Amino acid sequence: MKVKSCNNSSIDVLKTPLSLQNIKHLYRRVGFGIHQENAENIVGENVNDVVENIINNALKEDSLDRPIWYDWDITNYPKDNKERNDIVIEQYEKFKFDYIDFLRKTDLLGRLSFFWTSHFVTDRTSHFCNSYQYEYVECINRNALGNFKNFTKEIGLTNAMLFYLDGALSRKDKPNENYARELYELFTLGEGVGYTEKDIIETSRALTGYFIEGKNHVKCSSITFRERNFDNTEKEIFGRKGNWDYFDVIEILFEEKKELIAQHICRKLYTFFVYPDIEIGNAKEIIKELSKTFISNNFEIAPVLKQLFKSQHFYDETTVGVIIKSPYDLFLNITNELDIPFDERAFSIIQQGTRGTGQIIFSPPDVAGWERDRAWINSDFVINRWLFLESYIKDAFFKNEESFRDLALKIVGDIGKTTNNPDKIAKLIIDSVLSRGLHTDQDYEEAFAVFRSDISETYYEGGATPSWTLAGWFKAPVQVFLLLKHLIREPEFQLK
């Protein structure tokens, strides 16, 4: 699959009113899609009002409800291993259900939560502790649109992060370099940028002192600071000498390396929200402008995203349909835009489908997070994407056939009640579901043939007794289902 963007549009604010394509593009990037009716209600509005509303909603949005087990350790569970494990699994499955529901419903906050879990990476399989996982996600959601410096400071002291990157048992006589290395290499500066091996060694000494409390390091116990385990001597970090601790490291980092931090984070935001290749078009110039905004606003995330989402660059036609959807993009986008109810059955299929296409929630392949884009497309994953998505929409169809007619009528409007031409209806559905439509006329003809199904030409426009309409024909829901089933196998459906 070859996708390419040669975007040279500027960072200046988009002047023209938002079109339906603009709105769908925006919500497919800042969230997981938007329902047709909601999109149509925004058509013609100016970009400033729409983006401000998205940002403000994200800032006010509630995070996940705090579960009763948010601070449990192993002593809160039954002593019997099987009974305990059953409860842990039940809690975690409910938490994943709530989190995925949160992602699909909260637009920008959900999208940013998804983004930051692939930036400040932990892996639930490293600790299997539900309370650790909740604390980590709550920290992500609370800081997702806030101050990046505070975010970096807080996330590094979550139990999940301290456990995952071996900070929990890093002592003055045996400092562990893992967190120091990832703090610079992945979280703030970029690989090999702005730091030396000496900086890592000295920083690891400053990060000592954290310890798992509880007898014999009881599973899920809090990780706290112990003065006696801390290296209480002078360190030299980025040329500055002192008896630095964790909090000093964050202050020094953001004072000494602010330009590099801004560039690294704005580059990641750009490649996530706009296009994964910054060597094409004027991407580097856009990133420089975003970096200036980041620094001038003391590392507040919201102003950077406002500037990006309001820009001419973001809405340039070359940015539409050029990012390959992640597995969660595939399922949550189709859930939102086709108005598929999110219930236990849908959750089960999504879990199977995303796992079978290379993405397990809260378990990235390594500390670098998801590779994204072309990593999702190989021969095994593509086939699984087709099969699991087909299973997903088939399940929705069997639950409520008429919802497929209703969906199509919302897309096409009044023409669905009057025209006898199925190709007109199919074209409107195709162009609504796909970011940029199908690639060739032949592709459209093949899709039209699928939509016409096995219904006699007699009933269509030009036939002897044209009586077919989307609104009135009894088999129309089947036609919509067959068209969607066809589209999910098209290359264009894999893009957003």
Helix content percent band: 40-55%
N-C termini distance: 13 Å
- Overall spatial form: globular
Order of helices and strands: HHHHHHHHHHEEEEHHHHHHHHHHHHH
**What is the count of β-strands?**
4
Give an overview in words.
This protein is mainly α and 496 residues long. 53% of the residues lie in helices and 2% in strands. The chain is built from 23 helices and 4 strands. The protein has helices spanning 20-30, 36-42, 47-60, 81-105, 108-116, 130-143, 148-155, 159-164, 178-188, 197-206, 246-256, 258-273, 283-296, 301-309, 312-315, 327-337, 344-356, 379-399, 402-412, 415-418, 422-433, 441-452, 476-487; strands spanning 210-212, 223-225, 235-237, 240-242. The strands form 2 sheets. Strands 1-2 form a two-stranded antiparallel ribbon. Strand 3 (235-237) and strand 4 form a beta hairpin. Helix 3 runs antiparallel to helix 14 (301-309). The radius of gyration is 25 Å and the shape is globular. The two termini are 13 Å apart. The model has no long low-confidence stretch (mean pLDDT 94).
Question: What's the structural blueprint in terms of helices and strands?
Answer:
Elements: H1 20-30, H2 36-42, H3 47-60, H4 81-105, H5 108-116, H6 130-143, H7 148-155, H8 159-164, H9 178-188, H10 197-206, E1 210-212, E2 223-225, E3 235-237, E4 240-242, H11 246-256, H12 258-273, H13 283-296, H14 301-309, H15 312-315, H16 327-337, H17 344-356, H18 379-399, H19 402-412, H20 415-418, H21 422-433, H22 441-452, H23 476-487
Antiparallel strand pairs: 1-2, 3-4
Helix pairs in contact: 3-14, 4-5, 4-16, 6-7, 9-10, 12-13, 13-14, 16-17, 17-18, 18-23, 19-23, 21-22, 22-23
